[in-house]
Specification:
Length: 451
């Protein structure tokens, strides 16, 4: 998979004015270490934040910029920061970077950590200053061994340069940063499950409230932000709110740029930094090059396996949260997947639901039992052994596992692609219903977990 942020056929070159996340990338794909990073204006934003800005001013600047979380939920970052307590007597606070990138079809944070580790460190340093947090953790997907190696080296470089540790830049502010590799669970992408795992507990989501800003890791105020989110902070501080807002296309309600990509049988699968509001058609045709010869686009997902399927006629939708919502699903991580015309949707959904069922923490009944039930039904349909009523049962599960019905957002994300696949490709599901099977009322068939 190509990790790049060049434009179509490499004609569009990156610059600091238009590509705040990726302009420092090397053409050879090697990591940018401290000397080169500083030569490319690295840590200038941190020096500005420490020398010229009050801590509350940093928070307000990020809030005014309109920066939203880049992990998939899209919560306003400045608002989240504003939830941290103002009480100066609370002297133990934590900043956590959610780098547990396990969403299928998503690899954007990996590129940033492997090739621009100091950008993430600078973003966390400025954020720690704003939030008055004295210690930070990068909770990293365990399989990202290269990212772990590069981040640990970058942390040591920053320490040696006085950019981490005690009395940073002579400010009297202390900030320690650690890289923590996880054990490999999708559910750790949920911030409170991540906190439990960091504490050495089972990775179950926590009940909210209290929210992490009040009671987080080891019971202390905690802010959790995604890798790409934190990597946006230095440019906002360095170049200002108006410039950052100007990066987005007209019509977009989301500000700045976004790492977007396309995978599947496209001619040029890859990753690009693009302005919010670019159309999915531009991303698919101009950047990904369209489908490979001999294949046709059947469907696509806009942002990871937990987003609903869309059709080719939806490609004119703008890539921002509201633009994708208009065609019936979520922006998610912004890394799209093309489904070609050789793929059977029942088999694809069976594969997806098996993943989500396996990754369920098992805490709440709808998710623990409902996802394996969907797998059982999909396997039967895939083998041509489905019964009359199975499709209705699957649609019932989509409703029962939807938003607000489960303890966290894992199950709603898992069934969103299932519901959309039945909506657009019901005939493929119907083809797996054996005509001689007796009808069974929807949601009446027994489930044997693990059978």
């Amino acid at each position: 998979m190509t990790l790049t942020s060049f434009g179509p056929a490499n004609r569009i070159k990156r610059s600091a004015e238009t590509h705040p996340l990726t302009w420092r990338l090397r053409d050879d794909g090697e990591a940018v270490w401290l000397d080169e990073y500083q030569a490319k204006n690295g840590y200038a934003a941190a020096r500005k934040a420490f020398a010229d800005m009050a801590q509350d001013d940093i928070v307000q600047t990020v809030k005014d910029s309109g920066l939203k979380g880049r992990g998939g939920a899209g919560f306003p970052t400045g608002v989240k920061w504003g939830l941290m307590p103002k009480d100066e007597s609370i002297n133990i606070r934590y900043l956590l970077c959610n780098a547990d990138e396990m969403e299928p079809n998503t690899w954007k944070d990996r590129m940033l950590m492997e090739q621009l580790p100091h950008l993430l460190i600078e973003g966390m340093l400025i954020s720690a200053r704003a939030l008055k947090t004295y210690r930070g953790y990068i909770f990293l997907r365990g399989e990202y061994t290269t990212a772990a190696k590069h981040l640990n080296r970058a942390v040591e470089e920053a320490k040696a340069a006085g950019l981490l540790g005690k009395n940073i830049l002579g400010s009297g502010f202390d900030f320690e940063l650690f890289v923590h590799t996880g054990a490999g669970r999708y559910i750790c992408g949920e911030e409170t499950a991540l906190i439990n795992s960091l504490e050495g507990r089972r990775a179950n989501p926590r009940s909210k409230p209290p929210f992490p800003a009040a009671v987080g890791v080891w019971g202390k105020p905690t802010c959790v932000n995604n890798v790409e989110t934190l990597c946006n902070v230095p440019a906002i501080i360095a170049d200002g709110v108006d410039w950052y807002k100007s990066l987005a296309r007209e019509g977009s309600e989301d500000m700045g740029t976004k790492l977007m990509g396309f995978s599947g049988k496209v001619k040029n699968p890859g990753l690009w930094e693009l302005p919010f509001g670019v159309t999915a058609r531009e991303l698919f045709e101009d950047y990904a090059g369209g489908m490979r010869d001999g294949y046709k686009l059947k469907a696509w997902q806009p942002g990871g396996a937990g987003t609903g399927f869309l059709l080719p006629e939806h490609l004119d939708a703008q890539m921002y949260a509201g633009g994708i919502a208009k065609v019936g699903t979520r922006m998610g991580t912004g890394l799209a997947m093309a489904v070609d015309d050789s793929v059977n949707m029942v088999s694809l959904l069976r594969n997806m639901e098996q993943f989500f069922a396996r990754e369920s923490c098992g805490f709440c009944t709808p998710c623990r039992d409902g996802l394996p039930w969907s797998v059982k039904l999909l396997m039967a349909i895939e083998n041509g052994e489905g019964q009359a009523g199975d499709i209705e049962t699957l649609l019932g599960l989509v409703g029962f596992l939807g938003p607000g019905k489960t303890f966290c957002a894992h199950a709603p994300g898992a069934v969103e692609p299932l519901g959309s696949a039945i909506k657009y490709f019901r005939h493929e599901f119907e083809a797996g219903i054996a005509p001689t099977r007796a009808a069974v009322p929807p949601l009446a068939r027994p489930i044997v977990v693990g059978a």
